[in-house]
Fold this protein.
Amino acid sequence: MLRDSFGRVIDYLRVSVTDRCNFRCIYCMPEEGYPVAPKDELLTFEEIVRIVHIAADLGMSKIRLTGGEPLVRRDLPNLIERIASHPGIEDISLTTNAHLLQQLARPLRDAGLHRVNISLDTLDPDKFLQIARRGSLSKVLEGIEAAKESGLSPIKINCVLMKGVNDDEVADFARWTVREELHVRFIEVMPIRWNLDETEPFESLSALHGGRGLFQLRIQKDEGMLSDAQMRRMVIPFTAAKEAIEKELGPMTPHQIPTNGPAHTYKLNHALGTVGFISQVSWDLCERCNRLRLTADGQLRPCLMADGEVDLRTPLRTGSSDEDIRAIFEHVVAHKPERHYLAEGQKVQGRTMSQIGG
């Protein structure tokens, strides 16, 4: 068992299989995308499997595959099957935008995948294209249905909540959990490039259209995505989102589910699913953090919101033993920070979300 210097048991490894994505979400990536690692710098499946099995021997029994968008990595069911072959792995999950999930849900489930988290920020087709700038809402919804039919469970819907963008849809997402066994989690915007010295004004113009709020956002010209200042001003505390849901749909009661992770979870009366809130900004979750992150190019990171990573790819490719790799894991866990420092103006310089693994 791995335990850090603050007494937290570290049993969860998030593995990014690619830094490429088929979406260009306005809070994550510019229109033209970010530079991606050359293919020879990405970990091979053999290297990923070796790392994961070593981690499992150290007590890391929970594995989540991420990206970028992990479903753009070819032959992903093969990787999952090889990961699942280790007796120390108890839970394998996947975070995806679900655009390619319809055709892959069954092969992934048959290979050993247990569950999926699906990123979906709106239920409005027009707004979907404004946020993701690629793909279609209908394809994502088809992917969700395929996940249900394939027996992937629980299915969690991750919605990044943004003031002036999709905050008018919180009750719609919550209502979805009443009629279907889906677990919606509202995630506060986490501006990974957040810096308190930003002074650019936030602009969000809403107009009614068929009873729906549409938005227009001035995208930062040099990056083609929301600026630091805009994202900072879009943060909606989970208490405000919870109040908006209860005002329209009635009170919610606390209700935990397996693999609940960092979410504070509630349930509406007679609902089949749950509503959760992941509030890394307004409600610091660091004291419960149990994870490390492995980037697609083989860097092991102790924290999403702090620079600092250790190279695993080079030791793997220069003949290091499993004992050497275990020692690197132990070193990274020993240096895992107690918390992030967003409130103090911390700014992560080295990597974007897609390059770290969301």
Remarks:
- The first helix runs from residue 45 to 57.
- Residues 131 and 298 are 30 Å apart (CA to CA).
- The chain has eleven helices and 16 strands.
- The chain has a mean pLDDT of 87.
